[in-house]
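From: lab user (bench 3)
To: helpdesk
Subject: output format question, protein + nicotinamide-adenine-dinucleotide

Hello, I'm new to running complex predictions and I'm not sure whether the block I got back is the full result or only part of it. Here's what I submitted:
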Amino acid sequence: MINHSTLYIDGKWVVPAEPGDITVINPATEQILGHAVSGGVSDVDRAVAAAREAFPGWSQRSAADRREAVLGFAAALERRSGEMAELLTAEVGAPLSLARDRQVPGPIAQLRLAADNAEAVLAAVPVGNSQVFRAAAGVVAAIAPWNFPLLLGMNKIAPALAVGCTVVFKPSEVTPLHAFLLAEIAHDSGLPAGVLNLVTGSGAVVGEALAGHPGVDVVSLTGSTAAGRKVAAAAAGTIKKVHLELGGKSASVVLAGADLRMAVEATVEQCFINSGQTCLAWSRLLVPAGVASEAAQIAATRADRYVLGDPLDPATELGPVVSVTQRARVRAAIDRAIRDGARLVTGGTAAPDGLNTGYYVRPTVFADVDPRSDLGQEEVFGPVLAVIGYNTEADAVAIANGTPYGLHGAVFAANNDQATRVARQLRTGAVDINGGTLNLEAPFGGYKQSGVGRELGRWGLEEYTEITSLQY
Ligand code: NAD
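Helpdesk reply: Thanks, we reran it on our side. This is the complete output you should expect:
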């Protein structure tokens, strides 16, 4: 059994001043996977002080030196990627293939891209008689969720370190174990003391203490919109930079003339990645009303083909959801959708056949969903797709834009020009056109209550900088 009793602060493993216990359950077996210590407010103080102390040295290093250090961190993570993938699978319940192919290679690539691109972001730009340059913003509090914990933590850690910030990392209390391994890897790679610190604990205690801390210059949260509101409020007292990557209810819009089967199957496959626990899930499928029943049937047939089971089994395509709490939330959303009059085409709240242990949820498809209902408006964060029929293209755009969120989306059409014309009317941070693929160098983030700011690419690096203008 894994047991971590110390936090990583100032390059050392230290016993917290206010230790608590986090028990981590393997969602596939319902057995205890391990224990992680949690810290308190005074541990946050200690970590922030260490990060402040390390900031001048780290930020003033030459870009080439810092690049080498960040690339060394990437290489050290790569050497232990097998171990990291297995730990993420045990902690999150994601199939090992997903952990191996995405959850670990993504963060390694992030470190390398950030290391390579930081110098250009920090370079001075002449503007008339001024030289305008970006400089490291200071101490960053990086607060991560549980769904893709390493990947989403690294979306913050990599750019922050690369531009010269120092970091206090707070992983989710649901999935803290991988963060101890990450700190060990950072230490072994030779990152200087205080540059990356780890304080585990709850959002209400450790998260809020970081967000409100006068020694933190940037607070960057990936999590629910509810947590985003609290972080923004806690940060307001000290007027720090606030970066928020929050929830979504993204729409996949299928236009008349698109290849319906291809578009529907692609939507199901994107929506159900990681058992639907993905912020950018296309959880609403918008199709012309005349083909809505056919689309729902195609979606259900595709959903029924999923192999659910042990995340360590190479044949498994969908693992459990992360916790008993999350399963209860997803089941409640399914029950509510039925009460609200949506038509259950496949799935539902019963445990999948043969899977009575583990927090599994049947891949679920609803048709005839009212876009104003809870299922049409609220993030479920589970394997649940809502099929919605529309009458005109203008209706499709209005429905797609008619939620408090705007994180991601898709448009499928007969050609890219038609799809692009509709995509440009969507109030959302990213749109995949006719099956376009994820680009780690393009910006990612949300409109409206999906967040503030952008991660990835040069935009993600800029979030961790301030701007200075020198006049000559
Ligand atoms: P959550 O909001 O419960 O927790 C996220 C993190 O915020 C955790 O580390 C938690 O401890 C911390 N936190 C909670 N309350 C806090 C507070 N008051 N102050 C400071 N920190 C606090 O979210 P979750 O359940 O871990 O993750 C799922 C949510 O995250 C979903 O809503 C999903 O859409 C969102 N998400 C967004 C993105 C994105 O990039 N936009 C990516 C993944 C997940």
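A quick orientation on your result: The chain has a mean pLDDT of 98. Let us know if anything else is unclear.
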